[in-house]
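Annotated sample (chain length 151).
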Amino acid sequence: MDLVGKVKDFVADKVADMPKPEATCTDVDLKDVSREGIEYLAKISIKNPYGVAIPISDIEYTLKSATRVIASGKVPDPGSLKASDTTMVDVHVKVPHSVLVSLIKDIAGDWDIDYEIEIKLIVDLPVIGNFTIPVNQKGEMKMPTWRDMFV
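Output written by the structure step:
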């Protein structure tokens, strides 16, 4: 193996052993009900092991119910991760009423939606470049009641 190959292997081993940011979805809740649809809020906790702030390049999300995509999108300009700390990031997911009508079979039984949310946090790590942190969570979201809509 030549010198360049050995250097590549060495660097690859060191990068693989470096600590990387970790993220978890702590909560998904009803945020707002409007004429356009229902807005849910996913709260993401991201732990930054580095002593410097790290910019978040992008946040992409996909909300599924019964394996069907009911909402997807990106969060523009999500900010940065605090140095050596945990940062909370809010991901607003808007679901149009027309999509909810198509899920009536799931909703009618227990007035909730069984969901799976997939979030990709893309951070810009020094030396490494863009690094994607996948966050997935499954659960149930309660549908708003008449009281929620008119309070």
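Annotation: The two ends are 71 Å apart (CA to CA).
Annotation: Residues 20-149 form a domain with the Immunoglobulin-like fold (CATH 2.60.40.1820).
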